[in-house]
Specification:
Helix content: 25-40%
Shape: elongated
Number of domains: 2
Oligomer: single chain
Radius of gyration: 21 Å
Strand content: 15-25%
CATH class of the largest domain: Alpha Beta
CATH topology of the largest domain: Rossmann fold
Strand order of the largest sheet: 4-3-2-5-6-9-7
CATH superfamily of the largest domain: Vaccinia Virus protein VP39
Distance between the termini: 56 Å
Number of strands: 9
CATH architecture of the largest domain: 3-Layer(aba) Sandwich
Largest sheet: 7 strands, mixed
Structural class: alpha/beta
Order of helices and strands: EHEHEHEHEHEHHEEEHHHH
Amino acid sequence: MDRHRPAKRSLGQNFLVDANIQRKIVDALGAESGDEVVEIGPGRGALTRHLIGRVRRLVLVELDDHLAGELAAAYDGRDDVRVVHGDILDSSIHELTSEGVEAAQVLVLGNIPYNITTPILFHLLERPRPREIVLMVQDDVAARIVAPVGTKEYGALSVGVRAVAEVERLFKVGRKAFRPVPGVDSAMIRVRPTQPPSMSEEEEEALRHLVRAAFQWRRKQLGKILRAHHDLGYDPDVAAAALARAGAALSDRPERLTPAQFVALAAALP
C-alpha cells in the first residue's frame, strides 16, 4: 500500500496512523473467527491489517479509485477478503454479505468521512440491520448521539438512533492520531440495533416524521407543535390524549421526552 500518497480532501480522508489506536478499535469490535465484517473506508488498510485472518470474511468498501485498486491488488487471491469499489450509501449490508449470511449476523466497522457521518449511520440502520456497528465519528457528533435527555445536545439524531438501537460511546481519539491532522477530535461509538426490530417499518417512518418536526421547533411546547406545525396539524384533543398516553404534558418541550416516549407518542397519534 502507498503510505505516502496524500489524502484527498474531497473525500474527507484522514488516515489513522496510530497503531495502538488501530488495535484498540479492532479489539472494541470484538470480532471472532466465525464472523463476517464489513469495513467502510479502509483507506490504506490501517484497521484492515489487524482484521485479516482474524475473521471468517472481510468485505472492504472503498470509494477512492486508487486505494480500492491497491486493496484489490494487496489481497488478490484471498477467499476471505472481498474488495468493493464503491460508495457505502449505494449498497445495503444485505447486498455486501456472503450468500447465506443474514445481515443480522454481520459486524460493521468504519472510519468514515465526518461530512457524511449522519447519512452513513442512518443508511446502516436501514433494514435489514447488522448485528453491531462500530464507527469513528466526530467527537461532538458522538456527544449528540449519546446526549442525556434534557440537554442542549439531545435532539433528533439522539432519538433517531436510540429509538432503534443501543448506543455506547467507547473512547475518544485525539486528532494527532491522524494524518493529515484534522481540526477536531474523534470518538468511537458502538451501535447495537434492536433485534428483532420493535417497530414496523411504517411505525419507524411515522416516528421519524414526528421527531423531525418536533426538533425543528424544539423551543416550543409539544402541545403547540402537534397542533400548529405544518407537517403535523393535529386536533388539540387528539394531541392532548396522545401526549397523556406517552406520559408527557402539553407544556413539555421536545428535549424532555425520552426516545421511548417519542415511540409511544408516535404510536398514539392517528
